[in-house]
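Tokens for DUF4280 domain-containing protein. Go.
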Amino acid sequence: MPRPATTTTATMTCTFGAAPSTMNATSAPTVLIEGNPAATIRDTIPIMNIPPFGMCTSLANPAVAAATTAALGVLTPAPCVPVMATPAWQNGATRTLIGGTPGLTQGAMCTCAYGGVIQIVNAGTLRSQTG
């Protein structure tokens, strides 16, 4: 079943993040979908492509672990700084290439080194890519 194509306006969530974040697609800036740059599975650069998700609650995050230790074991969130554990998004388009790279679609996921699963929950478009 076709899934909506992802652009710079896509909304993402992280399982350990306190707030959603908005994709900033930079891998194919000349390819526009509904007037916004198209995203590909290569758009995984922390801060640039994947902005922070507010506060992080993963104890694998050294800042969260330190804050929690200082609070005598009470989980204490710290600012999120995504660190990608995988070099590319997973579950992107299987047949739609943008500049030779699979396009990114709603539902695609990648993993943060601190254990969070980052997922595109709103592609920011109405158009679908073919799987």
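The chain has a mean pLDDT of 92.
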